[in-house]
Amino acid sequence: MKIGFIGGLTGATADLGVGSRNGMILAIEEWNSRGGIDGKPIEFVLTDDQQNEQKAGAGVRTLIEQQVDVIIGPFTSSMAAVVLPEADAARVPMIATTVTSTDFTGKKDVLFRLTSDTELLAQNYGHWLVKTLQLESVVIVVDRSNLSYSESWESNFRLALNEDDISVAEALYFTSGRNDEMLELVEQIAQASPSLVVLVTNAVDAALLVKLIRDLSPGQLITTSEWAGASDQFLQVAGQHAENVYVPRFIDLDNTDSAFRAFSEQYSMRFQQPVSYAAMLAYDATHIVLEQIQENGRGESLLSALQLPKEHKTQLNTYVWDEHGDEISNAVHIATQVINQQYKTLKDFSE
Amino acid sequence: MKQRQRTFFLDFLVQQLTLTVLPLLLLGAAFFIIVLPSINQLLFDGQKKLADSINSTVTAFFVGAEELLAVRSLDLLGESNEEQSFKLQRFVQSTSVFETAYAVDDAQIIRAIGLSESLTVNRAVFLGADISRSPALRFDSSISAKRWSPVYQSLVTNAASSALSLPFGEGALVAEFNMERLSALVADLSVAGTLVMIIDSNGNLIAHPDSELSKQQISMRFSDLFTDSTDQMRTGRFTWQQETYQAVVAPVPDMGWQTVVAQTEDVFFASTRQVFSAVVVVLVLSLLMMIAFVVQSARKLSRPIEALQKMSSFIEQGRFDIEAVYSPIKELQQLSDQFLNMALRLADRELENQALNEQLEQRVAVRTSQLAKANAKLTASMHQIEATMEQLVQSEKLASLGSMVAGIAHELNTPIGNGKVAISTQLDYIRDIQVKIDQQQLTKAALDEFIADMFTTADIGMRNLERAKDLISSFKQVSVDQTSSITRDFDLASIVNEVLVTLRPAYKNKPFNVETRIPTDIHMHSKPGALMQILTNLINNALLHAMRDTGGALTLVISAQTQGDEVKIVVQDDGVGMPPEHVKRAFDPFFTTKMGRGGSGLGLNIVNRMVVGILQGEISLTSHVGMGTAFELYLPLTIKEQSGELAAGSKIKQQG
Fold first, then answer.
1. Is A207 in contact with B132 (Cβ distance < 8 A)?
2. What is the pTM of this model?
């Protein structure tokens, strides 16, 4: 009984990968302490895609060779685009918790997700921003290194705003890690002076951009996408510059639910880090998958069981899957704002 | 008490094996109990020493890095931000230890930064960045001491990193380690199957020979070994990535980090295992050798013994074609020679026996033929004697018949005489009456008397004639009985009476009384002739032998009693009796006490043969001197017909 993991353990999106891995490990350790499945301990195989297409291909092939029963990951849509065809061919189900691109929506495949796709996310968020803020013009910054996600998010967000009669300029593109492009971009923004800047980037890039933008225009309203809110990373890196930035997230740290508190404490004890939504989702995904294996076995019967449209309840959340394995209830989605260098929940979209 | 038996081979084998195996086992036990643990202890101690030495190297590396930065910080003090950046750049690029180094002010804002050549980031991006939230710093209140950060995602390198920060001016100097360099450090130290790792204060893997793993922020807190007693050196086991390791964990002083020196159990216990295998191999080989040797010597010893045993079993079976046994052991060789000798001698004796047997057989054959001839002669004599006896029996029969006829004739005299007297008396009466008639003196009284007398005398005459007739008819019966030995129904009482009648003349004038106590209802179906002969014989014997010389009357009692389907007839006298030696021989042929004086000695023998053979009964004799003699006959009331006898066809009507 093996679980495979593929995600960015190093590289730009390491916060997603490392957090997801840790969440998965916590769930596996819980199961093994109860005797595993059928008395046998659950093993796991880790691969690092480094947010790189070649590495992702090699990683998924390693997992298939190792005959894993299920894959947790990957965590970005661009990596999922590489991994899915191979997993599909090998009939290995993959739970890509944070892959939200609409490219994967409505497909009968081996991909299962715990977060709604960008259509739901971006549109809900867009409408809410319009309602909450006085918006006239919006500039969107898009990271090329994860186009499947970022373009999908961007186009849905644009759709929502257009519906609300807000004008959105053409998106500004850059590649993560290319600081010179960043500087250029920031100049352009300063000149455009929009009412809102939307950063569809990872946490570190978001932090750097926020600093650079606010260096030039201190009061600029900025929001990130969910991608940047994966963990505390954004706050750590941006420091004081993050103040007042809007960040949509998948985890509500103000959650007083006792199960969540317990989970949060357990996680920080085990990993000496505060819990991130990547960790929570991977934790939930692992629990869901292990329960399905225990009930239905492995192989084809697992796949068939996962493909049934169903509500999956964990201790922390309830997810609703349709027959394509897409999450359709917007199970975890909140809007926050950074106040005093902490995420403050403003809206819970799952209600 | 019967003991279970084993072959010599097995017994010897077991004994010897026990003798040799026991010390081996003791050795083996001693090794496992004493030596192995010592070896293991040596291994543990060795690992500890190794860990100590490695830890010292690691510590020295970090101390060196510290000093490097400290020295540099002196150089930077008081310089402008630009200058500081420039110097930091040079610093970072001159050492391989740090990826980047930056100076932060009291608000933890980066004011100067140096980047290694591998980083393609633009310095400008980071100047002014707020790293107050970064785990690189995270101070409590004031920047007071140097600090080693746990691994975290660096904003500059966008990768896992760990930073050393020193107080610098109002702020701090932060240098982020080149993680590749740390990985190379532990890789260099990981030699000969040893895995060296460094773990940060959060229990995350910060340095591993595989640089990929180093960067993945792997939490090692799954094992207590890395979370407990982190201020001491300790040993333990942990399982990671499907391998189990034996490890020593040593704290790197002042850092809160740990150096892990581990070997997979295979590697760690390799020498133990080698020694163990070597010892086991040696033990097993010795055991095998010893077993082989013992088996060999057992076989060597048991072979001559088996051969000897085979020799003796051959001899037992009478086979003398045995082979000699050769053995270097004196006693066994002697045994073999002796067996051979014994065999030879036995063989000779066999031959002798055979010759003797042949002789004997010849002699036996001769003797047998002689015996056969003698036997034939004897048989012939026997036949002769039997024939003679038959003749004697016949003559006895005739003799008794003769005496019977004499008796009969005698008997007949009486009634005939009486009849004659009666008739002659009648003639007298008739003459008298005639005279009276002639004299015309016939009175009625005289006529009545004459008629009465005539009736009386006629009656007497008739009766006597009847009597004579009866006698004749019974004698007829007797003679028929005597001569034809038929089987018929008869009353015992009347037969006995017949006998007495015939014999009465013989004892009429002698002091001899015969009493009969025979019930009249004893009916027999047997041979009356034979019975009468027997009784005649017994009575004659009594007459002849039982009388006392001194006179006195002799009483003979003949009694009979039925017992079931038999009748017991007792002929008893109160005569002189017989001594025991005569009793014994009474029925023997030719035994008589009156030899030459009228006894043939065959009487009782014939009686016996007739009782048993013809009447199918038994006879016994009791007699005591002076007390008398009693013969007891037990006869079946009904005899079974015997084959070949006259009984087959003739039935004589019983009539006079």
1. no
2. 0.61
